[in-house]
Description:
The chain is mostly helical. Helices cover about 45% and strands about 5% of the residues. The strands form 6 sheets. The chain has a 4-stranded antiparallel β-sheet with strand order 11-14-13-12, sandwiched between helices. Strands 1-2 form a two-stranded antiparallel sheet. The chain has a two-stranded parallel sheet with strand order 3-4. α3 (about 105-120) crosses α5 (about 150-170), α7 runs parallel beside α14 and α9 (about 285-290) packs across α10 (about 295-305). The longest helix has about 35 residues, at about 210-245.
Amino acid sequence: MTTAPAETDSYVLPLPGPDTPVVLPQWISRGNTHPNARYRDPVWPLAPLIDNPSKELEALHWRNCPAPLLAQLKMATWTMINGQLRPTFVKRRGVSARTRGSASEMSENSREWMRLARWLHKQGITDLADCTEDQWRAYVAHRWDTGSMMHETAKRVCSRLTDLWAFDQLSALPAGISRPPWDIQGDEDFVPAADGSSGQENSTEPIDPQVLGPLLVWAIRLVEDFADDILTAWSEKGRLTDKVNATEPTPEGIAALTELLLPQVRSGAPLPSNRTRQPGALALTYIAALTGATRQQVSKFGSRHALTEVVAHRPGPCPLHVPVTGRINGQPWREHIDFYEAAELMRHLGTAALIICLYLTGMRPQEVQAMRAGCCPDPGADEDTTPRRHLIRSRHFKNVTNDDGHPVSAGEDREIPWVAITPVVHAIRVLERIVAQDQLLLSAAHHDFQHGRGHHGALKKTTLNRRIEDFVVWVNQEAETHGLPEQAVPADPHGAIRISRFRRTLAWHIARRPGGLIALAIQYGHMRTVLDARTSSGYGTRSRRGIHSVLDVETALAAADTAAHLRDRVAAGEKVSGPAARRALTAAATTPRFEGRIVPRTFAKKAAKFLARDGVVLYDNPDSFLICAFKHDNALCEPDPGETAPRQYACQQGCGNALRTDMHARQMRQKADEIDLRASLLPEKLAKRLRRNADNFRKMADAHDATAQTAEALT
Length: 715
């Protein structure tokens, strides 16, 4: 790449002055009102480039750059923000490369460049022109040594450093930094070796079923059973707070305080306490609302009568006088909702709705964060009065570019809407009651229940992850309070529950858990149809990307695992039975084993092709205690035309696709014993019905034992 004079090269920008805007007007979208900065300013906000409500407002802080290298790095950074790479340079990077990056990519680039500048300064280098091949090699070696740098991350670091050289070439005043050697020789010899890990979406670990089950149960419980109580309590708290804010001090307020509090002090009764603060905090706003006094009058009254010491030893509730209609096991879930509890419950209600939307739509987190009130209107009915599905019309962001190939921060309206099943519709309706019309359903301003600060856009990833953690803590406290230990949320073996994990988890459960283990199991069968572009006109794309490819990948991995486990069992001497036994053994012998979790993007196409092999793909159905060697024409579960997977929640006995192993027979007998134990604790009529189910499981196990054969006998 060579540098041409600015007056003859359209890629070289004019030299900026001290008052030149950091972001030139042509890159700021209409409607973006975030403040810009000037070239001379010590902080450069990138907010004028950010229209995605789920994104943090990035800013570059030049105090992090050594003074001797500041001018050169500012020039390269400003060129990156307002210029674009030459197409000839980008073409060498592959089809996914772009001439301009997003604001977050620019921020990452700048931080890496400042990190390089600090390292160079420590080496005594004060001019980027002195960063030669030796320095490049030494710097990346230093970067890899400073932490456990993964292969793909290291490749991205190399790419960011190459960008410094590329944009310096386009600068009106180039520093003359040398070309990194990996841009000439390739980066594989400069980065740590791949270790089997992957940063791709399909390598994200799904949430454990034992975790997701109670988590979803409580999320749905809050949205469908407790939402009215919580929203009513929040409204009442707001009414009382507004009343107190408008109150003027009067003698009648003092008289009311005396009449309310002093008898409680003398009788030894607890006093209204603000339990969200330190122990011993008198409930100033609540007491003011009850008495008509001001907060200042309540505070002075408390000091005069030493109520702080009293309330520390005898803290009492602050009940809101609103009805409690929600039930757990037939009993009210609260005697009352506390004045100072309402904000916390509103946070948990919003989190519950978030969990439902993330998990039961297949949307990416930023797509959920972009939903607005009114995005899921109630549908009409077709001419035959058949109800239509609820559709979510909103925006998507991944790989959205303009005609020049530049990323569009605001995303675009999704051409084909998402389908919302009933729990999602209920969650959206609850969120619509929290925010104003046309506002983001997860508006940061509307969901700041404790402080009421005016935040930008939607609640951000870090905040949402923290709220999910808080929700789990609250759920476990409620489960203990209500004597429901089986509904507590255990620790996930793969770490914290993050919003990025729900999308993969949906695909995991559709592929591997057709029923039983978690709430709404029946919906997974529906969701497979709803989410599958081959069978649904309501939720599809013009190509099999997004959630469709995630679902194919997870289904293919599950089928490969099933085949591997079947091979292992028959090799260990287990026998098999069923009409599809011979076909399944042949399929298991020819199905590749997938070791680890390396799932590159190209695997999605291979997965779809793998699943299209009618008759030789194996699906484990743990709730029916069998394996399905799915062949469309044989299936009694009535799969839709063109479907490549069984409707496992509708599995039928006697299907020609079924086979069982000795392990399945053992599991059926264990299940029968469990049912008998449960029956012994129930009334006779119910017990008889359960015992019949137990007998059926034993009969199926006996039938397997009578007909099972070894793999050698079948092949």
